[in-house]
Specification:
Layout: H1 3-14, H2 19-26, E1 32-36, H3 42-55, E2 64-68, H4 71-85, E3 93-96, H5 97-108, E4 119-120, H6 123-136, H7 146-158, H8 163-168, H9 173-191, E5 194-195, H10 197-210, H11 212-221, E6 224-227, H12 235-245, E7 251-255, H13 271-278, E8 283-287, H14 295-305, E9 326-331, H15 334-352, E10 359-363, H16 369-379, E11 383-385, H17 395-408, H18 413-419, H19 429-442, H20 446-457, H21 472-492, H22 497-507, H23 510-516, H24 521-538, H25 546-556, E12 576-580, E13 589-594, H26 611-625, E14 628-637, E15 639-642, E16 645-648, E17 663-666, E18 672-674, H27 681-684, E19 708-711, E20 715-723, E21 730-735, E22 739-744, E23 751-752, H28 773-776
Parallel strand pairs: 1-7, 1-8, 2-3, 2-6, 4-5, 6-7, 9-14, 9-17, 10-12, 10-13, 11-12, 13-14
Antiparallel strand pairs: 15-16, 17-18, 19-20, 19-23, 20-21, 21-22
Amino acid sequence: MPSNSRTSSTERLLAGLSERQREAVTHTGGPLLIVAGPGSGKTRVMAHRVAYLIGEKGIPPWKILAVTFTNKAARELRERCERLVGRGSDELQVRTFHGFCSRVLRSDGEHVGLKPEFTIYDDDDQARVVRRILDDLDIDPKQFPPRALLGAVSDAKNNMWSPAQFAERTETYREEVAARVYEAYEGALQRANAVDFDDLLLKTFMLLEGYPEVLEKYQQRYEHLLVDEFQDTNPLQFQIARLLALKSRNICVVGDPDQSIYSWRHADPTNLTDFQATFKGAKVVTLDQSYRSTQVILEAADSVIGNNGGRMEKELWTENSRGKRVTVAEAYNEEEEARLVLEETASLGQKEGIGRNEIAVMYRVNAQSRAFEVACNREGVPYRLVGGVKFYDRREVRDVLAFLRLVANPADDSALERIINVPTRGISARTLAELRRVATLNDVPLLDVVLDISRVQTGDEQPAAFALELATRALNSVGAFGDLVTRLIEQSMALDTTELIDLTVERSGYGAMLREDKERGEERMENLQELKASAEQFGGSEERGQLIDFLENVALVSDVDSLQGGDDVGVEDEAITLITLHQAKGLEYDAVFLVGLEEGLLPHTRSVDDPMQIEEERRLLYVGMTRARKRLYMFRAFQRRFRGQSGAQMASRFLAEIPESLVTTRDIRGHARVADRMPDPMWTRRQVAVPAPRSARRSENEFSAGDRVRHDHFGEGVVVSSTGTGGDTQVTVAFAGQGVKRLMLSFAPLEKVEADGGAGVGRPDGLADPAEAKMEILDPDQFAP
């Protein structure tokens, strides 16, 4: 290609990119770290970098591997590359980490004990295996919950400990039980030719680390490696990326340590600094220009995240308008909070033209959605609830997928256990336990025992291979099921996946069962039709077969990849989005309402005693704040009820980190008040903690948090906070049935109600004493992410 022509194409490719974006796109001299702030165009940079490598540097697309955190991000990056490169992008490898590792193991996993048709177990499959192990070991699942044991197993795998290595490190009885379960769990997965998500990473690392010829194969295959959302990688993912790029050093990682919010998935934000230590001389490019948010929103977010230590410093800026101040509002309780949010969303539509589909309500825990769902239904406001029952988690879909999994991998015990009596075949739990006992005793998959019974039932003269203690009726039922599975496996060889789904639904009796269900049968059958459609759209590769590829794709679908709405609302409809902060990562909206800004919710009650966890909670809030393009609202409730418990809530410490100049506050009645003209106690008290005993605080002013007071008009209430002295004293009071009021004592005198027998000794409206509020904050288990 003539040089002037190449120069022209390069200029076209780089047109519209900022100077720093161009620098990130065109660097090809070794390792590159791109620190990309929220809304800074990182996906655009990655796509243009791929196009630059292919079009300007002549790198074949199949020599480039791009790894993302979610399937949604992979699709978006692939689509952008296709628009820039055209047909040349067909052979570009864009995958999630788990997707890439799955492909590696299907090709070379026999080195680490896996057959190519292995099954990927999800959370439910894992829990089923552990419950069975606990039963076999005679361990009470109430004392040792399967999810907690699986957490210990996951920790061990992410530390790269084998069951034996984990057992050597045990110090308590609970750890000893976890070690026994880990050993049995690994044995169960091995017999089933199955892996969990941690195994996909661990076994790939073991493969690349332990077999130099396999590592060299993939190092030669991929000359350039790009990794997105590097702050969300865990140590195993870091090591896999390191091994792949160790030879060429052509690795580009993109991330933002300020957006690392998945430590509970073993994500480690220090991987970004470790990257610089591992790949000496790596170039660092910081993308700090935001194309999303207003300057006010960026400054507010920066003021919060700036309180974290050890950061890679960056200060976001934008050429967008300065924008309106962040609105902070206090409501009396969660119902009032929901009502005020809906009122404001209506106002945004009328006054600013922001439609409901550009509005999101974000919260720390799923339980907070209830008040908003109730309010939306009451007011007739359409909404989509992210994190509802996902399509592939619906019962009928999981049942049919279990049949398909068993056809693809006859050793998949978890799949067999799910559908051996679905629809009902007269196979009891006792019968299944006997099948399991014999399979374990003989170290064979469950299906081997089932098919042996089926063989004998059909008149085979060879004696039974296994001795079972089952009644004739049970043997007949098990034999009939084995015959069904045999026919499905045989016929699957000549059918594509959609045809196999049809055959499975009818031959298994599942279709007849749904047709008899007059209440929900039609809806559930429609879900199976949608499953067929997804299989038809998916296609598949010939070398492994469509069925295995399809099942792999289903297993790897991320929980943050799709919006599951309430009331069958489509994404294109005018519906408000209700979503957790974790699920909101990667999304953006014109207006964002962050609700529940209270101690115990954000920051989470499980984090308040751990400085590192407080920093992650602050990063989580930062992620939420930077989802907003134009308007940002932050709400808290004075009182909140969960699971029948009610208590006064303290304002989140993070609110005090936002400068007053960036904030407009609003009281419960909706009257705006600019912070720099009328200071709010939320900002004047610069730290949040359980108040000291009253005797230690009487010198500050006449009123203290927790005092009972009476007002001539509002009645009795409880003091939330008090600032100032003398005639300048301002007292914030929660009045029963009237909400939260801020009163200047010089204009609205209050009378203190003594607690030793005067009228109104009882708490108004059942309010808890604010001085005890932090102690009363709710059961931690209900706040699981």
